[in-house]
Structure formats: C-alpha cells, structure tokens
Prior knowledge:
76% helix, 171 residues, 4 helices, mainly alpha
Amino acid sequence: KATTHKPATTGFWAVFDKILDFFAILSCIALLAISFIVVADVIMRYAFSKPFGFTTPLAELVLVCVLSFGATYLLREQDFIRVDILVQFLPKKVRLFIRAITNILSGIIFLFIFYGAGMKLIELIKDKAIIINSGGNWLHAIFAAPMVVFYLLVAVQFFRDAYQTLASIRS
Length: 171
C-alpha cells in the first residue's frame, strides 16, 4: 500500500509542495474553465452558427497543463497505478530498494527529457516560433513551455521519493 504524503513544513520541500499544490489547484480551475468554454462554443456553433475560433487550441493547451501538473501532484501523493505483481512477493526491504532504484532511474530519464525539451523550447523561442505561426510551430512552442516545467518537477519528485524510500530502509 502506498504511503500517505506528509507535507514538509520548512525548507526546499515546503516550497516544492506549495508549487505542486498551486499547479494542482490551477489545473482544476483550468479544467473547469475550459469545460465552460467548450460548452459555450458548442452553443455558439449550433444555436448561432458563430463558433469561437480559439476553443480547440486552448483546450489542447489546457489538457497538456492539466495532465502534466496533475500527474506530478499524483506522483507526490503516490495515487497512481503500480505494476508490482512480481515485486510484491519479495521481502519488504528488497521491494523498497527496487522502488528506490526505479525512482532514481526514472528521475534521470526525466532529467534527460527535461534537457531535450528545454533545448527545443529555447530553439523555438530563438526562431520566434511562439510569436510567428510558421506552419503550426507556435502551438508546439506553447505546448513545450508547461511540459518543460513538468519534466523538471517530475524528475525532482522521483528523486525525492527515492530519497524517502532509502531513508525508510535505513530506519
């Protein structure tokens, strides 16, 4: 069974937890707002034949943000599905050690992804792809910004979980 998250009260982790909480709340508000916008767009399209032109790209951006920041929050809360059918039969310390190792490896992978996505975002900004719509690149640049933040937050959370798991093995 997953352990319940205990919020940090001071230091870096307290700030990190507040950032994750903020993004989780922001994701909920954004999802609610986009729901109303999509409903209004449907009404405008079928009742008045005047749909909004921005609904689809905005809905895509909101979904990227909601999934990204919501996933980071769920990772912290350990409120997701784990495939541990083989690991569950191992002794507790071995299970925890495997979990710590997989979290470290996952954190490293997300750091590489963060680096690659960050470099791509910088390239898109240098090419002014956010400002100029050159074949749809502006959407890619806008989507890249929250994803870069997401990759970093997930990497940090994986390392945090690995540290806490290793600390629980020692105690």
